[in-house]
TrEMBL record:
It comes from Levilactobacillus zymae. PANTHER family: HOMO-OLIGOMERIC FLAVIN CONTAINING CYS DECARBOXYLASE FAMILY, PHOSPHOPANTOTHENOYLCYSTEINE DECARBOXYLASE. Its EC number is 4.1.1.36, 6.3.2.5. Residues 5-175 form the Flavoprotein domain. This is Coenzyme A biosynthesis bifunctional protein CoaBC. It catalyses: (R)-4'-phosphopantothenate + L-cysteine + CTP = N-[(R)-4-phosphopantothenoyl]-L-cysteine + CMP + diphosphate + H(+); N-[(R)-4-phosphopantothenoyl]-L-cysteine + H(+) = (R)-4'-phosphopantetheine + CO2. Residues 193-405 are annotated as: Phosphopantothenate--cysteine ligase.
Length: 405
């Protein structure tokens, strides 16, 4: 997505300002042409000369951005921009952007830019958590600006917390999959989404369970994409090996019954639900209290299973018209026909059907291919691509459905 793009990189004042230089390089490596704006505070940490040498272009600073020669540098730069990236963005820069201030070169260029905008915050953890900063983040999201979630780790102050500047390579890889369209963030900002993920476990005894091949990657990718688009995300997850996505509330569950309880109690307060969990269809009629032993007279063990509750079916019965509900269908045959039946039967707004009989995509891998089936009958097949990219597309469809409600 960065190939041949004009990226205007705004660097603000932070201990992380020096990483702006590495980021400029990384953007160039991804094919972008980069021009830089330095705030006055950034100029105290890094020099315009460094960025001018790296980008082979003039750097816009507060010194002399208004000339008497008729050139209006900030408007020229704003009009040149395909992507405006503020990184590292200080709490002050976010406050300027959120309030539409245009009292220096950086904020005036930003305000004058009509291109997609991304903010990568870097600040002390208490400054990040401050009510004012979180309010500014929400305002930026509501204005269609993408705000990446800072990393958690050791800060310059010597203690750990959230607020660390993301690594330049991470920023560039996130830019490749971001829902950069402003309508998505505007529609999802402040919406409360429940996302389920992973394969449920149905206990046979204290040490054994029935489960399936789901890795949870698709659901985690959906939770991350929704969070980045500004939604308030609760991820209800069966056990997985995946790290917890930052900025997301996690509710761990094991069995289908626990998943059903977790979803149904939270549904009334939610705006939407994405059921990406691979739910067991059957559970043992009874789970043994003690470990099941093999003895000389039990050459065979017969398990009695009963149907699990169908969560989406129960959701359909309680769903309000303003809520958006998305299901997944993992099929090995008649993908579209079975998917369409599930969409109708479970009263879904959207169903992502994926073919799990193919070795290159599906359950455990990083890639997937899905066909989105919409309630109005139309469908849309994605290419084989990363689960992150599919999650981004799914979230933008969810935003469209919210806008139509
Ligand atoms: O298992 P099936 O293919 O029917 O799953 C389709 C959708 O229904 C998925 O989104 C899954 O999470 C959901 N489901 C459910 N309750 C079940 C089984 C599946 O909500 N008991």
């Amino acid at each position: 997505m960065l190939q041949d793009k004009h990226v205007t990189l705004t660097v603000s004042g932070s201990v992380a300002s020096y990483k702006g230089a590495a980021l400029a390089r990384e953007l160039q490596r991804a094919g972008a042409t980069v021009r830089v704006v330095l705030t006055a505070a950034a100029s105290r940490f890094v020099t315009a000369e460094t960025f001018a040498a790296l980008t082979k272009a003039p750097v816009l600073t507060d010194t002399g951005w208004w000339h008497a020669d008729g050139k209006i540098d900030h408007i020229e730069l704003a009009d040149w921009t395909d992507l405006a990236l503020a990184a590292p963005a200080s709490a002050n820069l976010m406050a300027q952007f959120a309030n539409g201030l245009a009292d220096d070169a950086a904020s005036a260029t930003w305000l004058a830019t009509a291109a997609p905008k991304v903010v990568v915050p870097a600040m002390n953890t208490h400054m990040w958590q401050a009510a004012a900063t979180q309010r500014n983040r929400q305002q930026l999201l509501a204005d269609g600006v993408q705000v990446l979630t800072p990393a958690t780790g050791l800060l310059a102050e010597g203690y750990a917390g959230q607020g660390r500047f993301l690594e330049p390579t991470d920023i560039v890889s996130q830019l490749a999959t971001l829902p950069l369209d402003a309508q998505t963030t505007t529609a999802l900002s402040g919406k409360h989404l429940l996302v389920t993920a992973g394969g449920t476990r149905e206990r046979l005894d204290p040490v054994r369970f029935l489960t399936n091949d789901s890795s949870g990657k698709m659901g985690y990718a959906v939770a991350t994409a929704a969070q980045q688009a500004g939604a308030d995300v609760t991820l209800i997850t069966a056990p997985t090996k995946l790290p917890v996505p930052s900025g997301v509330t996690v509710v761990p569950i094991e069995s289908t019954q626990e998943l059903a309880d977790a979803v149904l109690t939270r549904l009334p307060a939610a705006d939407g639900l994405v059921m990406a969990a691979a739910v067991a269809d059957f559970q043992p009629v009874t789970a043994a209290d003690q470990k099941i032993k093999k003895t000389t007279d039990n050459d065979e063990l017969v398990l009695r299973l009963k149907k699990t509750p169908d969560i989406l079916q129960a959701v359909a019965a309680n769903k309000r018209p303003d809520q958006v509900v998305v299901g997944f269908a993992a099929e090995t045959q008649n993908l579209l026909e079975n998917g369409r039946q599930k969409l109708t039967k479970k009263h879904l707004d959207l169903l992502a059907a994926n073919d799990v009989s193919r070795a290159d995509i599906g359950f455990n891998g990083d890639n997937n291919q899905v066909t989105f089936l919409f309630a109005d009958g139309h469908s849309d097949q994605t290419p084989v691509t990363s689960k992150r990219a599919i999650a981004t597309t799914l979230i933008s469809h969810v935003a469209e459905i919210f806008n139509q409600k």
